[in-house]
Amino acid sequence: EVQKLNQQLEEKNREIQQMINQPPYEKEREILRLQKSLAEKEKAQATSDVLCRSLTDETHQLQRKLASTAEMCQHLAKCLEEKQRKEKGNSDDQIPTERPNQVFLLLLAFFKLLDNETSLQAFICNLQDENRMLKQKVAHV
Questions:
Q1: What is the CA radius of gyration of the chain?
Q2: Tens digits of per-residue pLDDT, 62-94?
Q3: How far, in Å, CA of 127 to CA of 18, rounded?
Q4: Are 27 and 99 in contact (CB under 8 A)?
Q5: CA atoms within 13 Å, Cβ hemisphere of 114
Q6: Whole-model pTM?
Q7: What is the DSSP code (8-state) at residue 130?
């Protein structure tokens, strides 16, 4: 393992020597290339930040709509129950079959929203890690 690490160290030293021995214009060209690459990555990061904010806002809007829809469904289910009780002569044993189905569909939609937000956060973390690594590489060079 020590030999392997020594070999890697020697390779890095050779790379450094090659860069030191390069003519100045080659060094400048490499620096410009790396700066251009960094600028592109920063632009991509800014774009992804804007998209992430947009998706986050949309997620919050959808969650609010889901909550209001759930409230409306509960209200309608109560109204339906009252109507059925009146029609059946106040029979408390009757439970409408539509209500459990509506609640199930609402819960399913809610969990899908939560899953999308979680995958979005993971994507953001991956982009931030990649950006950090690229900045470290540029600083190293």
A1: 30
A2: 888 888 888 888 888 888 888 888 888 754 444
A3: 32
A4: no
A5: 6
A6: 0.40
A7: H
DSSP 23: -
What span, in angstroms and rounded, lies between the C-alpha atoms of 118 and 106? Answer: 19
Of 124, 123, 120, 102, residue with least CA distance to 112: 120
- Name residue 93's amino acid: D
Q: Residue type for 69, please? A: T
Look-up of token digits 């609010």? 64
Provide the residue type at 65 as one letter: K
Give the CA distances from residue 25 to residues 13, 29, 32, 90, 97, in Å, rounded to whole numbers and listed in that order: 21, 6, 10, 92, 78
Q: State how far the Cα of 128 lies from the Cα of 130, in Å rounded to an integer.
A: 5
Sign of the alpha-carbon dihedral angle for 33, 37, 43, 47: positive
How many CB atoms are closer than 10 A to CB 98? 13
Helix axes 24-88, 98-140, angle to 10 degrees: 170
CB 54 within 8 A of CB 48: no
